[in-house]
Amino acid sequence: MEADGIAEGFSKSIEMHGLKFNKLIGDGDSSVVKRLNEILPYGPRFMIEKIECRNHLLRNYISKLKMLATKTEYPVTIRKFIVTNILRFRSDVTKAITYQKNILDKSKNQKIADLKYDLKNAPYHRFGQHQECNSYFCKGSKIGEINMVPEALRCGILLEIDKITSRLVNNSSSLIEDLDNNICEQFNSIINKYVGGKRINFSQSNNYSTRVKAAIISFNSRTYLRTIHKKIMNFSPGKIGKKFIKNTDRIRLNTVNRRILNNNQKRYRKKMVSARSKGPDSHYGLAEPLMDTIDEDELQEKKNTFIQYLHTVDTKQIEIDTRDQNLNPNWFQERKIRLTASRFGEICKMRPNTSCKTKVHSILYKPPVTSKQMTYGHNMEHEARQKLKEIIKLDVQLCGLVIDTIFPYLAASPDGLVGDQAIVEIKCPYTAKDSENSIDAVNNKLLSYCYITQENTLKLKNDHQYYYQVMGQLHITRRNVCYFVVYTKKWISVEHIYYDKTFWEEKMVKKLNLFYTECILPEIVDPLYGKRLLISDIREPTYIKEKINK
């Protein structure tokens, strides 16, 4: 219901307010963003950025620290220290956010990077180790302060705290905005009061909508009874009514003062568990074929217009503007309307009789996937790039989204550029992070995409999706060689992979062009999925239908 309400608000924002909303402040629930990605209220080229609510992130952080402090396998002194200083753990985060946000002579990306550093270091600072603290963060050790970091590391509790802190670090781009959705939470609580907390059925005879309107008046005026009485009767309430309103104001003021004085008081709130909408049931009426579609000639005209638009964009400027890649909303927006190299392998290896509907839905509508493996790889990437610089004795430049000059709907984001003829692609496999060397990693089946040559060197399999990715990156960037890096803390492998023009022309380019123009592009210019949220509504091109029917 929450996702449906917000989606409707976005869909009608132009009609009601003449505005397009490009940001959404929300909690950790991904269903709202998922729904917005499905309906695309402003079209496929308009990106809506999700900003995580600061209060929800901090509440989650403190809750997990409190839960960690209850685990008896860790020393009681450290657990008591956490409980005693729980608000200081929180203030370390909020002070870092406030400082970085208010700096005027830094770019936003630099602020985010510095905030990440402060958040990672915050638990160490709180446990008494200040070697890595910046001067603005603290003034060094206090008299009599004990460094508890060695003991916390030895027992393993600090590693658990690092994992808890990682969620804050990963959401630094949201925390730097320092925003919350408190006003929505407050309004929702007033609605719940007027509808009796959903304990009574008020869904008939406009009863529910009337009560919501009453909640709106109460929220905006803070004096619901007086406002309604004066509007209807043209005079203020009498003695009894005024006494009641005065008493209500007194209770509200006392509640506010009590919360200020007792900010450590625990407040438990029961969470309502609601079933998430998964769209129409395919076994009922909405499984009928979608009739509201345009004809082939109009669809082809829209496709041609969109391709012409892609030819007009400034590809060089896009590459410059997106060099911070997943920290930049423009990077996601430009990738969303193109087919990128990370997808080339799965597209080229599709069977001719495989439906494209699920793949198109995954590319256009599914939110970015995150996991501990992906987070680990992303965090290790900078370290791997620095190690590569030491090995090849050359500078590695950051790279944004590179768009193909001939086919502007194909794009790639290498992990780096070396000179004028080389690119860098880095893999930091989580599964092999504890292996002693590359040979052990392959023999223990921890690197499925590589094999060991007779010279005991690591080599990428040329039938793996990563090989298709590298070939696509080399072709789009018009470069000849890729430094394919596999990096862990204990070892590194650097393979030179050269551009194979025959491989590109015979196994890749035709399939990629066909898939984009016949599968992805129709859904971009005339979306069908968002009308009923059925994957089956997505168009199946003729060439796939013929293969399926054989």
UniProtKB/TrEMBL annotation:
Pfam family, one: YqaJ
GO BP terms in the entry: DNA repair
Residue stretches making up the Mutator-like transposase domain: 1-138
Domain YqaJ viral recombinase: 330-478
PANTHER family: EXONUCLEASE, PHAGE-TYPE/RECB, C-TERMINAL DOMAIN-CONTAINING PROTEIN, YQAJ VIRAL RECOMBINASE DOMAIN-CONTAINING PROTEIN
Protein name per the record: YqaJ viral recombinase domain-containing protein
